[in-house]
Fold each of these.
Amino acid sequence: MSTDIDAPPETAPPARRPFPVLGLVAVLLAAAALVVFFTRSGTPGDASPEAGFARDMGVHHAQAVEMSFALRDKTSDGPLRSLAYDIITTQSTQRGIFMGWLQQWGLDQSSDRPAMAWMSGHGHGGAAMSAATPGTMPGMATQEEMNRLSQATGRDAEILFLQLMIRHHQGGVEMAEGLLKLSDRDEVRALAQHIVDGQNAEIRTMKELLAQRGAQPLPAP
C-alpha cells in the first residue's frame, strides 16, 4: 500500500513592498528646498531695489539722526527729548543694518546711480511710485532748512523740528512702501515693514506735539 508523501508547501510569493511614497516625497521636498535655497541665496545686484533702498534709506536716516541731535541740544521738553533719542538710536541701528547688508552682498555703500532710481521704471503703480523722482529722496530737508534748524532756539526750534521730521518720516514711509512693492527678500521686507509701522506711529505722536504748540504740519512730500 503506497503512502502519500505530503507535497512540500507552496512557497508564498514574496510580499510586495509598498511603493515608497514617503521616500519620494522626501526627495521631492529636498529638491524643492535646494531650488529655493539657491534662488534666495543669490545676492541682490548693484542696481537692485534692495541695494538702492539700503543706500538711499541710509542717507535718509543719517539726516534724521542729525536733525534729532540738533533738537535734543535745544530743548528741555521731556517728550521731545525722548522722541529725539528714540530716532537717534533706532535709525542709527537701522543704518548700520543697511550698510551691513551692502557689505554682505559685496556692494559699495555708495553708487553713481541717482537717488531713488531703484523705484523708477519698475511698473509698480501707487502713490509711492508716482512721487519718486530719480535724484531726490522724499521728505528730505533742504540745506536751507537744516541751517534754519541749527539756528533756531526755544519753541521755534521745537516747531521747526516737528514739521521737518513729520515730513521726513512721511518720505521714509513712502520709500519703505515702495520697497515692499518691489522686493521679495524676507529680511529687507521685514525691516521695511518695521519702518512703515514705527515711523507712522511717530508721525501720529509728532502731530500731537505740534498741535500742542499751536502749529500745523508742512505739506506731505
Amino acid sequence: MPCSPITPLRRAAFVLTLALLAGCGGKPVPAHHAVDTHPDDACAVCGMYLDGSPGPRAEAWISGRAKPLVFDSTRDFFAYVLQPENQSALQELFVQDSTRIDWQQPAHAAASFIDARTASYVAWQPLAGSMGPTLAPFASRTVAEAFVREHGGAVLGFAEITPALVATLDYRCPAQATGAHSTLQCLAAPSPLLGLSSHPPAAPSPAHPRPHP
C-alpha cells in the first residue's frame, strides 16, 4: 500500500509533536529574582554573618539549590563566581546597588539588589567592605564615574573583573590598572580623605531613591 504524501498540515503537526516531546524531556529553568537577606545569613565564602558587616552584599543562584548563596562582600562574591569549577552551575547573580544602601548598615531588602552582570563596579575605592577592600557596584555607570571622580578608583564591567584583580584588590590604585580587555583609567583617591561619606552618591533618577538609614 503506497504511503500517503506528507501534506503541509501533517508536517506542522509532526513538528509540533516533536517540540512537545522535547519540552517534556527538560523543562526550562524558571528565572530567579533577588530575595531579602537576613542578619543571621552567613557568607558562602568566609562564613561570617551579615549582621554588622559594612558594604554591599551579593547573591548567587546555583542550579539545584532552593535558595541563593549569600555573600557579605562583593569581593567574596567574585572570589566564588570566578572560580572555574563554579561556572557551570551559576544562574542569576545579584549585587546591591551602592546608591540604595547605607554603606555602614546595608539594607536587607531584595529591592536593593541589581543584576550583577549588567552593573558597573568601582575597584580600588577607599570604602571598606566586610573583608577589607571591596568593589562598589552601581546600576548606573554615570553614577559610578561620579563616585570615582570624588573618591578615586576605576570603573569596571562584570567581564573585566578577573581572579587576579580580586586577589590583589586594595584601597589605592595600582601603578597601572588593567582589566580583562583593556587598560583602564584609575584615579587616585583624594589625600587626605577628608569629608569622605559612607553614603555613595545617589542615582540621578528619582525612580530609585536611596532609602533612609
Amino acid sequence: MTMLRHTMLLSFCAAVALTALSAARAADSDTTTPPVATETTTTCTDGKIWNAEKKECVAPEDMKPAETTPAEGTTPADDKAKTEEQKKTEREIDDKLYAAAREFAYAGQHENALRALRAAYNQEDPRILNYMGYNTRKLGNIELGMSYYKRALQKDENYILARSYMGQALIEQGDIEGARVQLVEIRDRGGENTWAYRALLQSLGGERTTY
C-alpha cells in the first residue's frame, strides 16, 4: 500500500469514527420522555430526594456515602480497585441526582433542581452544567444560565442538548440569528433527527416546548 493510500484510509476511518461518535452523543441527548413523577415530588418536601434503598426522603447532600479511611495493610492494587469502585459509585449517585433534578425541574421546582445538581460529584459533567444553566435561566438569570451552557460546550462541543437550551435562551434574549446558528450546529453534528433539534426548531417557529 502506498503512503498516499494509507493516509487516505486513515482519514476515512477517522471521519467514520467521528460521525459515529457524533451520532451517539446526539442519541444520548434525545430527551423526548418527561421524567416519571416519583416520591421525590409526590411525597418528599424541602428539596429532599426519595432514596429507594432506605425507603425514605434524604437531603441531596446525604446521597453520598460517608468517607472511610483506608484499611491497614491494603496494597496499592487494593487502593486502585477501590478507586475504580468509588468512581462507579460516584457516577451512579450523580445519575440519581441528575434524574431527581429533571423531576424537580419538570414540576417547576427549579431551586430544588439546582440543589440536587450542586450535590453531584462531577461538577464539570456537561449534562450537570447544562441543567444548571437551564434551571438558573428559568429562575430569571439568563446571563448566568448562558455561562453554564458555554461551560458545558467547552467540555463537549458535541453536546447538542446544551446547544438546544442555549438556542432557547438566545430566543428569549431576542437573538434569533444566534439561535439559528445553534440549530445549524446541532444539525451538522448529527442531531437533525433528535429532540434537541426539533425543540429548538419549534421554538424558532413560535412553538413553545416543555423541557
Amino acid sequence: MTSQHEPEQYLSFQSGADIFACNILQVKEILEYHRLTSVPQMPAFVHGVMNLRGTVVPVIDLAQRCGRPASTILRRSCIVILEAGQAEQRQYIGMLVDAVHEVISLTADAILPAPAFGNHLRPDFIAGVSHWQQRFILLLQMDKVLSVEEMASLSAPAAMQIKAESHCLMN
C-alpha cells in the first residue's frame, strides 16, 4: 500500500488539445501507428484490429471513445497497448492517441478530484486531475474507458443510436 507521499508513475499522452495520463502499470508497450484492419459492425470508436505477435488486438480511438471527432493520423500518432478487463478475463487493447509525452510521477496528494461540471468526459472515465507543465492533466480510469463488457455491448446499431441521442441532447 502506498502512502500519500510515495509517487506513482503515469504515462502522459495527448488526444486533441487534451493531455491525459494513465497508470504506467497498465501500459504494456507503445507502438508506432500502422494501418489497422477494420471490422464491420463495430462501434465507431473501434478503429480496427492489429496483429500483436499472433494475438488479435482491438484498437480504439481515444478521441471517439470520449465523444470527440475521430483522430487524424499525424506523424506522432501512436498506439498504446494496455491491459484491460477483470482478473480472469484480462486482454490487451490498443488505444490510438495523437502523441505520447513522458512518464510522470505524481503523489496521491497531488491528484485532485475531477470537477463536477465543465468536463467533456464521462465522470466515470476520470480518476482525478493534476497540474503538469503549466496545464491540467486528466488521469483516466482505464478500466472504465476500456471496459470490455461495455464496448462489447455496443453493436454498430446501438452505437449509432447513442450517437444520435447525444447529438439531439447537444442541440
